[in-house]
Design goal:
2 copies of one chain form a homodimer.
Chain A lengths: L2 H11 L11 H8 L3 H9 L6 H14 L5 H7 L5 E6 L5 H16 L3 E6 L4 H13 L4 E4 L11 H4 L4 E4 L9 E5 L1 H14 L5 E4 L6 H16 L6 E2 L5 H13 L6 E4 L2 H13 L9 E5 L13 E4 L2 H18 L8 E4 L2 E4 L11 E4 L3
Parallel strand pairs in A: 1-2, 1-3, 3-4, 4-5, 5-11, 6-7, 6-8, 8-9, 9-10
Antiparallel strand pairs in A: 10-12, 12-13
Helix pairs in contact in A: 2-3, 2-4, 3-4, 6-13, 9-10, 11-12
The structure holds a DNA duplex.
Chain lengths: 363, 363
DNA sequence: CTGTTAGCGCATTCAG
DNA sequence: CTGAATGCGCTAACAG
């Protein structure tokens, strides 16, 4: 071994002076005149350390502004104290509410949340799930994107707990929390029928989205039970699309007298179009939507909607996940929790209430 | 050393069989018949490996379903490939939009984002910032909560890059991206004055929020320049509070003829109250707000607002952060980027436009 | 109650 | 082009 490599070897062992790097537990131990384990124990608190030692450790920590390296701790130990949250997007109020609720629950458990969006794309969803796994999250909360395309399976996740919500995936071994999409839709369409409507159109996004399809099913059921013809359009992604669609419908001999929109985005765009067309709601055309939102009471007119318990659903999903994490369970057959929805009767359906009236979907 | 401890020692070295744990690079190396470094190099791609070796490694990876441990990689290397995002909350559309934009930029850079909310509480904010530091994020994007109480300083963050946006903190060494809160507010209040309003009330949240205060300043400036008396109320957190306030104002001899609300939450609540009171906007009382929102065009009436470029601001903040991360800079004096806002004239101010008219705040 | 040893999975360093 | 050794910061398991 020549001179150079000796130097190199020595250099390797000579750590840079403390000033230039973050203090480690070792630095604390040295300053406190104890071993690293005493520091570890003093800080984690789940083991006995003499009061004297503890004092000196704490003082050293203070002095050095020591901060434990959570990364090292996660790496060393079995859990990272973080969960992953995979959502279609954060731009929509519904998903934002979900994210808020999940992060709240996580904090209550002392967990961090790593968040990512898929843009409703299954390939992105899969890639992000893999990345979460690489990050060794202790569990995952997922709002899956497209039902059929989704490649999210227990096999992918191994023994990492996963709870899906709002929309399920095909694999029944993953827990899922849902709302009564079909029953709620059916009920609100029945309400429209009670108002005397016979031509009710359903405006949805892609049918490959579980919720959009489930809501369609409720709509169809109500229509068929009443002996009415269904009239559903999917792919209502933009205001322009809806404008075209509506114009065509109005010019046809039999325009719909009511619209049922599949979610907030469609509701908003439809209302925009109707307003720009100068139509009166509900006299020219009635409008009801799935999913309530902040401004639904101050739109013109106030909107009748199916209200889903977004907050409760998200909390239920997150709580279930922490149950799984705590117990170390990865069930063969996952739980399937279905939460009830409400119908909020305002004025866009034709009701005259001056304040909203809430009824249960199974009334 | 007795028999038991010998067994223990042996047990320590005998790793559990591969089936019961995630495969490591070592397993891949063994299966491929190469060294771990060859695997590392083959996978990271930034070093030369013979095509033959690479093939065998890739096959072994496939076979074992090996997934690199990002935690170990982050721990070992200098960067974690994750950034932190600290927000007041995710329930409000504005913040959700910010979160969406930041996560998008992060993904473009191959980064994960760890998200957390403060609930506008400075102590939580500080604690969460510390936690982010413990997690060794490579950088932080923060929407600080209360300006004066904030304890976020360069000193706390050390050499971890931090970009604040929407609201600044006191420490000038942290980068900040803002919008023209004051100029925008001033301009929209001037517009109200041009409509002939003389008694214009400002409804805000806490003045300890930078934006709320900056918007108040713009309001006050416009009023004073026009020789009008200011009438500002802070703490308009709930609909009930606003209802009380408005009733009192209406019963007074000199009720305001127009309202300027400080952000979407206040705007919504005020509109709710006004609607329930049966008042006509803008004839009985005009209403303009800061921050545009999805439904602003279909409220009754469509609302005139200051529109801020939430998306652009967030992207700018995130991009600046990645600049800092890439260059390893932690400047003494941070950048201060101020983005322009627009006034969107709809009908709640008294304008008769059937479609919104957009003007710049400095027109 | 406290210190020593060892190793988590990976990538840097150096030596072939 | 490849591999062996080493240590990142921390804590479980042991031995005092």
């Amino acid at each position: 071994m020549n001179r150079n490599s000796l130097q190199a070897r020595v250099r390797q062992h000579a750590r840079p002076p403390l000033v230039h790097r973050k203090p480690t537990m070792c630095d604390v131990a040295r300053l406190a005149g104890v071993g690293t384990m005493t520091v570890s124990r003093a800080l984690s608190g789940n083991s006995y350390v003499s009061t004297a030692s503890k004092q000196r450790v704490l003082r050293a920590v203070e002095q050095l502004k020591y901060r434990p390296n959570e990364l090292a701790r996660a790496f060393r130990g079995q859990c990272s104290h973080s969960i992953g949250l995979i959502l279609p997007c954060l731009n929509e109020a519904f998903f934002a509410t979900c994210a808020h609720a999940v992060t709240s629950v996580a904090r209550e458990h002392g967990y961090s949340v790593i968040i990512t969006t898929t843009g409703e794309d299954s390939a992105t969803e899969y890639a992000e799930a893999e990345r979460m796994l690489e990050l060794h999250v202790d569990g995952l909360v997922v709002i899956p994107s497209r039902f059929r395309q989704s490649r999210l399976t227990r096999n992918l996740f191994g023994k990492t707990p996963v709870v899906t919500f709002d929309r399920p995936v095909a694999d029944p071994s993953l827990d899922v929390v849902l709302v009564q999409n079909t029953a709620g839709s059916r009920r609100i369409v029945e309400h429209l029928i009670e108002h005397g409507h016979k031509r009710i159109a359903y405006l949805g996004l892609s049918r490959s989205l579980f919720t959009i399809n489930a809501r369609f099913l409720g709509y169809r059921r109500a229509m068929q039970d009443a002996g009415l013809e269904t009239d559903a359009t999917f792919g209502c992604e933009t205001e322009a699309f809806i404008a075209d669609l509506l114009k065509k419908k109005l010019e046809s001999g039999q325009p719909p007298s009511a619209l049922f929109t599949s979610n907030t985005k469609v509701t908003r765009n439809a209302l925009n179009v109707i307003t720009h067309l100068g139509l009166n709601v509900p006299n020219d055309i009635a409008l009801v939507g799935f999913d309530d939102f902040d401004m639904a009471e101050v739109t013109s007119p106030p909107l009748t909607v199916v209200r889903q318990p977004a907050h409760e659903m998200s909390r239920a999903a997150a709580s279930l996940l922490f149950d799984r994490i705590t117990r170390g369970e990865t069930p063969h057959i996952g739980n399937r929790i279905v939460l009830p929805v409400e119908i909020v009767l305002r004025n866009s359906c034709g009701c005259k209430h001056s304040a909203p009236v809430v009824i249960h979907s199974d009334n």
